[in-house]
Design goal:
Helix content: 25-40%
Shape: globular
Structural class: alpha/beta
Number of helices: 8
CATH class of the largest domain: Alpha Beta
């Protein structure tokens, strides 16, 4: 399974990004080479509460070169040189500046480059090798840059995507990015949006949540399709037994649930849900 990192041109908490990537690198290394489950385990482990650091403190202890990696035994330069364990890194427009600070090396650079500083773009143009794919578009286009980046990631063979910088800025882009997860789901690509407080993904059918691996205290389910039928929740504070939810009705029914057992499970009969794991 090939795991890709997409760094968008949106708002990015650099302290969080550095901590997240360093934790991912540690878990990927611990998982060993050739282990297809290592990437998934690393994503889960990089999501837990030890990333709840103070943003200012993390930035102060980190540097632009190491992206905020810190702590005994962490070789930030080596982690960055290996792209923190990701198989493929795709940079989007303004994300080029973030990537430079985090020490990431791109496999592809995508966008119309209307939000990146000219000197940053020129540095990438002159400093990257011929093996880097440039997917350049005009600003007047039907797709967002993040949508184009997802298409590029799929072309490069990624079957799992971690997307940073897709939330916390313009609401229109954030909602669009959540809807892009449906494109991933339809293509059989496991994808999620991450920020300091939230992990956003889609689910259809069933999923098991482990209490020690969930991203935060709260788990919410919001319909992506018009109807989601026969929702069954077990191991949660608020269980459900065959409930159907519809967009625009009973909006709070599946919001801010909590896991009360070691594992919890959701099953659905039809439809697609937005799953938001969050912490205060």
């Amino acid at each position: 399974m090939k795991t890709g990192l997409i760094l968008t041109g949106g708002k990015l908490d650099m302290a969080f990004a550095g901590e997240f990537l360093c934790k991912y690198a540690e878990m990927s290394a611990a998982g060993g080479q050739g282990n297809e489950d290592a990437g998934a385990s690393a994503i889960e482990e990089a999501s837990v509460g030890d990333l709840e650091t103070d943003g200012a403190g993390a930035a102060a202890e980190g540097t632009e070169e190491n992206g905020g990696c810190r702590g005994a035994g962490r070789n930030a330069a080596a982690a960055a040189a290996r792209n923190y364990g990701f198989d493929c890194v795709i940079l989007v427009d303004g994300g080029l500046a973030h990537a430079a600070a985090l020490g990431l090396t791109p496999a592809a650079i995508v966008g119309d480059f209307d939000t990146v500083r000219p000197e940053v773009l020129e540095a990438y143009r002159t400093g990257t090798g011929k093996d880097v794919l440039w997917d350049v578009h005009r600003p007047e286009k039907d797709e967002t840059d993040t949508e184009l980046a997802i298409h590029t990631a799929m072309k490069l063979g990624c079957t799992r995507l971690v997307i940073l910088g897709a939330t916390g800025g313009r609401l229109d882009h954030e909602l669009s990015n959540i809807h892009l997860l449906k494109m991933c789901l339809d293509a059989g690509v496991e994808a999620a949006l991450y920020d300091r407080q939230n992990r956003v993904s889609l689910l259809a059918g069933s999923r098991i949540f482990r209490r020690d691996e969930v991203y935060g205290k709260y788990v919410s389910f919001i319909p992506m399709t018009e109807r989601v039928e026969d929702i069954r929740l077990s191991g949660f504070k608020y269980p459900l037994y065959g409930k159907t939810v519809t967009i625009g009705r009973e909006a709070g029914l599946c919001v801010s649930n909590e896991i009360t057992e070691e594992t919890a499970e959701i099953r659905t009969g039809s439809g697609v849900l937005i799953c938001i794991e969050s912490k205060d």
